[in-house]
Amino acid sequence: MLNCLANKLTLFCHSRPPSSHNYLKGCMALFAIPKTDFSTTSIKLARSENDPKRWLSYNDVIYPPQEPGEERRPAFVCHQKLNIKYSPKKMWYVASFVRGMSVDEALKQLPQVGRKGATIVKDTILEAQQLAVENHNVEFKTNLWIAESFCGKGPVIKGMRRHARMRMGEVMYRHCHYFIRLEEGTPPKDYYFSWPKTGPALLAQWIDEVRDRRIEGSL
After folding, report:
1. What integer is the mean pLDDT of 119-141?
2. What's CA 172's distance to the chain center, in Å?
3. Which is nearest to 185 in space by CA: 149, 132, 135?
4. Preceding omega of 196 cis (within 30 degrees of 0)
5. Euclidean distance between the first and final Cα of the chain, in Å?
6. Which tops the pLDDT comparison, 46 or 38?
7. Ribosomal protein: present as a keyword of the record (predicted)?
């Protein structure tokens, strides 16, 4: 009986129009082929000519000798980390957080920040600290503070993401560059501004703002 059913099925398949039979075979072949992965998250960007180079050039500046009574010029080191697989908007929060801190304080605070950028910033600070001691004559690696810390936009890679009903969506894989400058010495007490201001200082500021007003279209 099984042989009879097999023969009937064979006759049915061969009796169908050739186009339908080929279509069925094509559908079965599609299911047999493994699905293609459209994800591009595994792409590692190589160094290119468009990478920023100006920031590290500040390490090669040669300053003139100082006068006997002149205040000592503190040593500094500039360092950068390029093509980070992270959004520059998210990195901005971490870069602003450590700005104006001492190195020890930043290394103590960053593990408590629940962001991926905190780990990247911590590694960059440790690399810059090692370069300061080895190449820039800094005697104590703990006697450093973060004078500048900022990020810039890196390359953006466009990828595809599969949706339902054979549709495709666009996804953006953003990268950023992180720059830091460590300076020898202790950090200032007020990095951004001095606050609270006294009454006379606030009054003088208000008078200057009023005097600087201009009427548009006037002589």
Report:
1. 94
2. 14
3. 132
4. yes
5. 107
6. 46
7. yes
